[in-house]
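Why does residue order matter? Because the sequence determines the fold. Keep that principle in mind as you read this record.
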Amino acid sequence: MIVERPAGSGSGGASAINRPALPTRLGALARPLRMPAVSAAPAVYPEPTTRPTGVLGRLSVAGLTVGLFTLWVALSPSLLPRAWWMTAANVGVSIAYGYLVGSLLGRFVSWLSRRTHLRVELSARSNWAFRTGWILLLVVVSIIVWIRSLHQQEAISLMAGVSRGGALNQFLGVLAGIVLFALLLLLGRGLRQLRRSTTRLVGPILPPSLAPLAATLIVAALVIFVSTDVLYQRGLNWALGNATQLSHTSPEGRTAPAEAERSGSPTSYETWESLGRQGQMFVSDGPRAADIAAATGEPALEPIRVYAGKAQHDEIDAAAQAAVAELVRAGGLERSAVNVATTTGTGFVQEWSVQALEFLTGGDVATVSMQYSFFPSGLAYVSDRDTPPAAGKALFEAVEAEINRLPQEQRPLLFTSGESLGSFGGQGAFDDADDMLARVDGAVWTGTPRFTPLWSSLTEDRREGSPEIAPVIDNGQHIRFATTPVELTEDFYGAPLVDWQEPRVVYGQHASDPVVWWSWDLLWKEPDWLREQVGRDVSPYLSWDRWVTFWQIASDMPLSVDVPSGHGHEYKHEMVPFWAGVLGLDPMADYSPIIAAIDDLVLDR
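Structure:
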């Protein structure tokens, strides 16, 4: 059937167009469809966009979130007010730790969702809104936390009596900490990229299951080698070289003493040059008989100070014997008391401790010491914990043996003392508390590092209910811990102690002294002193958090002596009542003339 279109219809008046009849077209549609052949090969789809895997890949949202949480914690109070670099170090390592934990947590959640086929899908707009809102919330909370931390830092500054620069200082510290985190992140990603490259290198020669493990071990070995044999060892050698050079440099304003009672004098076995920098300070400083008489109003003897330096006596035993020979030469065994003072790594002797004993005894005392290392205490803490107690033991036993050669009635009282690393080293002379009490007539230990075995055993055995910062031992019969001098007469809470019997031992330690309270187990364990929160010069907002608190207390240590006496690691004025208590005097008496005299004599080191 033909359907004709009328003339003139259509475009341009063209003739009628012949088309198939409608039934014919429908019939064609009714014929069976021919399906295209299906190939057995899998379909190929466009590869989805993936995250960059190089060093500059995208940041983990989960990692940044947890990193911000640790930033907030890092801004919380520690023991002392912070300088900007203290804030930077704490913020940098804390964010890095939080980012690592958050990234691992995010990967675990992603793996778990794949295993359980759990998917949460958002539209592009909703996803953008959620991410943007979440980031803004974190930023706002971070600003609030930072402002709050400024008020807390101000409160700590008032308690410690020192300022570290205010808001600008802390702001610069946070910025520097973020930069440090970025550097640590780049380092971590660089190591990850190195591991992947190493995996590809060893892949052709190892089974697929072993290649990643082998690559990990290779990179770990490389990191250990660079960290220990290159960075650590070379850094240690550089620091030791500088410390040794400094030790051989004479201090300004000091000259060799003329008194026979001092090492380095014309009659001394030890030359002025051999004493080293700290030894020269020790024998040239301190009161003379006239200074003591002026402060006490009583006649006084010339205090004896003897010292052996490491430059001339490299072996510990040789230095100890040289110090004892000096003690005998100077007439030290003829005095009423001998004080064995263990030094810090550089040979530093705590001047306030020595002078307090000299003034309180009217100069009738001989102090003997020696240098056993060139290392500053900070380096000795991490590189050599064997030498200080060995030196403390050698010197004490050498002096003890010399005293024991005398008839009983002619023997002087034997005291011992030390601060910081000197306290750690000095206590190395004794097996336990009973051994110490059996061999000394008195001792003053200040700023004792927490890892000191004798200190630790006493603290663990303290009376139940007494705080870790001021433990009570046997109701104070022989050994007394004190954060302030008043605790030599009563416990931390004001309860009376028993009568103080000879021998008397004082452990002076401030609640805000990071040298005392820092320890490796802060990384994973909350100590009693933090849980108890009873320090009078410590922020009530100080709390324990895994990893972060470790770095907070560690960053407090370098400037812990840059605070007024009675705080941090600065033990000065309280040394007079401490020694008064050991001598059997009233520790709460007025010793202001002696303290003022020592203040005038002690020079900055």
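The chain has a mean pLDDT of 87.
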